[in-house]
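Please predict the structure of the following assembly.
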Amino acid sequence: MDNILEVKNVVKQYGTYTALNSVSLQVPKGSIYGLLGPNGAGKTSLIRIINQITMPDAGEILLDGEPLSPHHISYIGYMPEERGLYKTMKVGEQALYLAQLKGMSHEEAKKQLKYWFEKFGIEGWWNKKIQELSKGMAQKIQFIVTVLHQPKLLILDEPFSGFDPVNANLIKDEIVELNKKGTSIIFSTHRMESVEEMCDYIALIHQSNKLIEGKLSDVKKEYRTNKFQVGILTNNVEGLLYDLTQKFKIGEANFKSLNDELKLEVDLGNYSQNELLQLLLQNGQVTHFTENIPSVNDIFIQTVTNRN
Amino acid sequence: MGVLKLIIKREFIAKVRNKSFIVMTFLSPLLMVALSLFIAYLANMNKGEISQIAIHDTSGILRKEFKDDEETHYIDLTGMPLKLAKETAFKSYEGLIYVPTVSNINELTKKVEYISEDSPSMESIMKMEKVIDNTLTHFNLKQLGFDATKIDAAKVDSDIHLIKFSGEDTVKGLNEIKVGIGSAFGYLIMMFIIIYGNMVMRSVIEEKTNRIIEIIVSSVKPFQLMLGKIIGTSLAGILQFAIWAIVGGVILFGVTTMFGVQTGPTATVSPEMMDMAQKEMGTLPAYIRELWNLPIATLIISFVVYFIGGYFLYSSLYAAIGAAVDSETDSQQFLLPIIMPLMLGVYVGFFTVMNDPHGTVATVFSMIPLTSPIVMLMRIPFGVPLWQLILSVVLLFGTFLAVVWFASKIYRVGILMYGKKPTWKELYKWLKY
């Protein structure tokens, strides 16, 4: 599969502090890629390098197969974590200016801008100054400004921080739609719910190093614990528990259900799921049987704490 | 290049559209003119007042010598007893000149008294003393057998004729005019640097506090942004100066013609003033000739060159400071080292160039790039050797390039730094990022 972005052994140092220690990433074309990491891990440093705001001390970056160069600026749409707009400039002029800085022609920018203004139903805002708009309104403009020049790669640094829930949803839908149309998207965040929901690929950066990278499902498989949550209605609780402990490690489980069943967490160990299931079926009515899939949050915390 | 043009345009429009720019541009020349008219009016009002001074002279020697003029009227109270004269003078007049009776007239040099509530001005004391001196001198001359009128007739008032080695005539007071012209240019540069340098700094801080800066630098190089900002702001400044020059010129022209019509026929001109005016009229062509002899072309070209060099040098420093801090209040600590050389330039210019335009101090300060735009411009009307001009300009532009490089480094790092106000040490570290 083609990669829209390849980061190869990038090193960045600020004085004696190493912000990125030989980090490599591969962002597949058309993916939604979650760049995860605690604060200060080096995410923003990496993103700034991809945006050519700063230069790496070593390593190489390929965008769409080519080494990164100034003409790639128009390929990328970037919404930084620290974002804002000129408060005293009119919305329309401002958006046109920013689009032209990205290399768009005045006419083309105007056309695109009209499209987005109609889409969000905000045609009347053209001559308003940002300071006259509410925060939520300004956030919409911020998003439009980011995607106006139809970038192939969209980089969003903590995209939902500061957005109210309504706008966050609106933006989320737009991002998914853009992705369907072929835009590759990099999310940098430490908010795991959104990653779980949207990303196909993730990478975890911690203390300047990349610790994990891959397809979200693959990463999850790697971190599976082989534990199952089971619920069973049985008259023979003691017998069942005795049988189970012969083969498996068991613990308490807690999940919601309508019955008053026995809830257990079972570690399969070297046995198969079927063996567990058979044993359960012999002893009563199974109401619940699910694998404990590690959440991205679990993986994140586990990896980071292990590392420390 | 296209991007730079866009930035320049935006900065220019943002500055020019600003309400305070419009108000400043059109209001300040009006204010200036109004202020100078007001001062002129005040000065005139003071002149019209006549102070009345009483005189009590029992000796009878001096009272006829104090003659009324435009500013002072003398009232003879010798007829009254001294006590009553004092009371009258205290009530109705500014003061009382008391001349006692003396056996030897020369004792009067020490014995004349001036009694008043407020202490008199230096000028009026000198005026009174002059009257006494003249009277007594004439008296003494007469005693010695000289004819005072003949002596007066024999008195001369010399006037040294100033000629250059090249043989041209020249006039006195030219130094002052030259200093005036040079200072005006130097001062203009300083004002422009401070006003527009501050504007550049504010604009940088604004982008930082708006948090738009990272979006911009993901599209353009920080250096381009800084350069565009400096150029755009300077264009707004040049526009403002142009408007000032035009508006100010028109207003001044209007006012002077109005004044000319009003005061012309009614003004009472004393013979003395006529004499002065004629003297000045005689030398006026010489003044004009001298002004034309000033290196005007050099002056204007140098003004432009030093203006560009000085403005860019300082405003890139201003931009770096703006990038380093989060708010204008934090900038003070860093601004001091910028303001200092500017002030130094102006003061060194005023005090040393006037005394000795080609002295060591003036020459050195016209070479140091931080002060040269001001000091050299003050020196140019006096004629500066070409090699000094060239050396100074080369130094200025060399430093300018170095400073822009240095400032853009700090700028590049600073615009993405939030929070703590950096220390000098940290700024130094940024240079190496």
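The first strand of chain B starts at residue 51 and ends at 57. The beta strands of chain B are 51-57, 72-76, 95-99, 113-116, 162-163, 169-170.
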